[in-house]
Amino acid sequence: MWVNPEEVLLASALWMTERANPYFVLQKRKGHGAGGGGLAGLLVGTLDVVLDSSARVAPYRILYQTPDSLAYWTIAHGSSRREVTEHWEWLEHHLLQTLSIFDNENDITTFVKGKIQGIIAEYNKNHDIKEDDDTDKFKESIAKFRKLFSMPDEEKLVNCYSCTYWKGRVPRQGWLYLSINHLCFYSYLLGKEAKLVVRWADVTQLEKCATLLLPDMVRVCTRCSEHVFSVFLNVSETFKLMEQLANIAMRQLLDNKTFEQDRSLPRLKKKSPKKVSALKRDLDARAKSERYRALFRLPKDEKLDGHTDCTLWTPFNKTHILGRMFVSTNYICFTSKEETVCSLIIPLREVTIVEKADSSNVLPSPLSISTKNRMTFLFANLKDRDFLVQRISDFLQQTSSKIHLEFTGSLNSSYDEVGGTPTSCTAVLVTAVLQDCVPVLTTDTAKEFLKEQAWKNHFAEFGQGVCMYRTEKTKDLVLHGIPENMRGELWLLFSGAINEVATHPGYYQDLVEKSMGKYNLATEEIERDLHRSLPEHPAFQNEMGIAALRRVLTAYAFRNPNIGYCQAMNIVTSVLLLYAKEEEAFWLLVALCERMLPDYYNTRVVGALVDQGVFEELARVHVPQLYDCMQDLGVISTISLSWFLTLFLSVMPFESAVVVVDCFFYEGIKVIFQLALSVLNANVHQLLSCKDDGEAMTVLGRYLDSVTNKDSPLPPIPHLHSLLADDGERHPEVDILKLVHGSYEKFGSIRADVIEQMRFKQRLKVIQTIEDTTKRNVVRTIVTETAFSIDELEELYSLFKAEHLTSCYWGSTSSPTDRHDPSLPYLDQYRMDLEQFKGLFGVLFPWAGGVHSDSLALRFFRLLDQNADALINFREFIAGLGVLCHGDLTEKLKLLYKMHLLNILFHLVCETLSLGATAGTWQAGVLFFNPLFFVPFLMTAVKRVQTPDYRTYLRLWNQETRSTSENMKDLPKLSQGQFIELCKTLYNMFSEDPNEQELYHATATVTSLLLEMGEVGKLFCSTCSKEDGDERPPLHGTKQQGLQPEPFHASAGQPRDEPRDEPPDAAETSTVSAPMEDIKLEDSSPKDNGTSSAMLISDDETKDDTSVSSYSVLSAGSHELDDKLQCEDIMEDTVLVRSSEPLPHSASVDKDWAITFEQFLASVLTEHALVRYFEKPVDIAACIANAKNVRKVGEAHVSVSDYEISLSG
Questions:
Q1: What region holds the EF-hand domain (predicted)?
Q2: pLDDT of 523 over the 80 cut
Q3: Using CB atoms within 10 A as the burial measure, which of 579, 616, 715, 760 is most buried?
């Protein structure tokens, strides 16, 4: 390709000149191609890989040089000799003569540069090539990546790093390529080539480790191998990127959300020297935004725009605090360098004035921001204040165009006005509970009053509402307990739900209206659990509280159908409703499920399982003396799920558990870890003496039952867990506030970022364990139904799943969410569509081969798709493969026979049900039909056009799933058109077989025999046809009273001008496909003495003709309609080929001709070549190994498998 001219200092270094003229030089890189250049070539090739030279991708180049100058300019390079030769010839024909007329060398150089740049600009314009953000150096890396690993354009490279890969004890210096879906490594050292490809979805462990010799190593583990990389220039950056990519892959396994690149990133400068892709910047921006949202509890769609160091004037202590300002689309946030000193959140919806104050030596570059609640924040020491003010102004203009509810005045008054009450019972539920508590408030009124006064003083000093300064004092107040009448409001504030309440007015009411009266699995589970939600609390002992709980849970199930409803959500939501109104409780639940406890409440409680693993790791570090004992008893995994899912609400007395919820909303999940470790630490001696898990659970249960809240003004509510406990000795009372303070003293060193790092490690383990469990359950379910071994089934399942993942990466005709639904039963979690099936059919199924493999795969797929949903699950896939690999001759031929009945059945169903008779509807995925399933349905549908009720479908499903032996006589007859398709299939199957000619002769013999049988059969049914005559109405447009499945009749085929190699579904309305439409099969007697119209060619003439095998079984070249095909004239030393003369338009397929399966089977059994072919054993292990070696990009992969390294040279 032409390139912008670049100066070359040493033209001959490491390059060999192949052509030259006075102005241009064509060179080839040493060490490339045949003859490689000996030792020098090996050294050059090694150097290119180590230094990441562009010569690895473009080993040919053209240089420009004036005769009297020593300077050279690169004007073109190419990956192949042909490509660079085309450019060389163009230069010789169009430029060389022109240059001779110039007198000045500078003019020649200017002309050549301008000409090349003009060619490049014209090419980009004609091919609509747009400038992108990737640098030229990174584009070279992309080209190398795709060339080395045969990756398609859809596979996006993120970055590449120089490193060393350790294969055993041998280090190999090379390049690590990190793409969205794969980790790849390439090395070339002195003729030895090494390649490695690993899917991120297969990674089970990813960790950064160190040894004495290798201080910075990254270990990547899959189920079957371990890979170690070292000698990184920046190991931290590399490892963070690997973590991000592995996380994306785990997310795809979890919920099918494929990666989409952010197109709104700021562009790089045109001459940026950094070798970084736009995709890498995208991932970096996402990681920063995730940390930003987690730090300040902001909505999930908030994107960080930028950050800058600055100081903030804090009026409560009259100092300037050093920290960092963060600016996003809707918020300005600040956090101090020391995390606990101060943090601040300013929603732009609250901002009234942003102005630049006068600079001074004491206060350089100040910026003042005022809010609606009359608070002013003063930032200083801003490096680029003008740019920052402009960005904030732009965001304010966007914010002002939106409708926001204003939070002004006190907390109480503001929340009373927000959105009103969605239902009349909302405020009644809260006030009713408080009224019940009034008589008991007198004993602890003083303590409660002091708490309220402390918070009011705090508001007066640090501000009130969302813009409040959050300091260490705020944390201390939370740890001492939040007053009852402020709890809900402060939960909203600390969780960030206050922002969603303000920005989504009316959203909850709309959800309630849409969800009421609708029923699904989630609503059924909600109804079942409603009366199990805090049944001991008076608020949920009447319909008022139950109705509010029902509305909130149902609304959330409709908001987030991926979660829907999960047990434990009812307990948490019921507590939220006690302290907040319905709409506020709804948004608190959103914050809990989607931000603070991610993936906790999905169908497989992945988030809780991940944190369970984190808790085990923390227990090993902080209570090592107890860890081994707890692991042996298996207690940690049992207790942590209930503790984490319900935030201790299900295991502690209510008045104590709400204190835990207070701390959780302020500090996040670290509070739960700290408290859980404190509980274990407080019971170390009792747990060490336990003999089994039951005894350990009893010890912990008694301890948690004894946790009390002496400062609570609420009446003691009997705890359900304590009511069900045994009458053993009670544990002494434990004050919840002392327990919380103790957890901070002993385990307060646990940091949120450390927890996130541990979560990543555990997430890999948990999700891969779930995937392994799914595989084992699927294999265990179908192992009794097939002759495959367990190991073979596991390998086949891995390939089945890998095909699904590949289609997610690189595109498919169907949605990934349709094919992968973790909520479905194990067998249906992964399914594949036709395009995916074609990929596996070509590498696993023994009948695949030749140019018509896709056509056969299409027929096979339609036969396997028993529920007609355009998808097949693993059981259906194995059922089809099992017949070909382990079935006997009869089963294989029966399968082949059935595959060719589908066209006529499809046509009949379309006609009968008025669903459209065009074959394109099926090809578009609208209709898939299985003959055995729909034959009884056709009988019913013709008699009664109206839709049957669900009982009919249940009956049909029961008949289809019941294991019954199928009788050969029950199979419909094969029409002449279908028979022709069957013969074509046979010929295509044999096209690449070693015994190809022998099989062709056998097929010709069987074909002639079956043709005679069909003609004889016509004589026996001619009388019946005459008697029925006009009484048999047509299928289309006429109401039928019954349908006999045999014989089926095919419509006449329409001849075409050109044959085409397309699947038969493209012409299913005529039963003869295009390549066979010039076959002339007329009514004839087996004793007819007419001459044959087939062209006879000897074996010697056709042995080397590769086109013979792709043609049809029979051909006719006569233009006379009364010419008949004589099957007995076909000799053993001839092959039937296609006639070059077209068939007249009047030719048609005989509608009365038909054969049965018994006739087909008996005819095949007469030919030993066919019997040997269909009885030939299949080495499924070899097929699986071959499938592993094939990349689904059209060519075999060079490595031994996707998970192993290959060495060559």
A1: 852-887
A2: yes
A3: 579
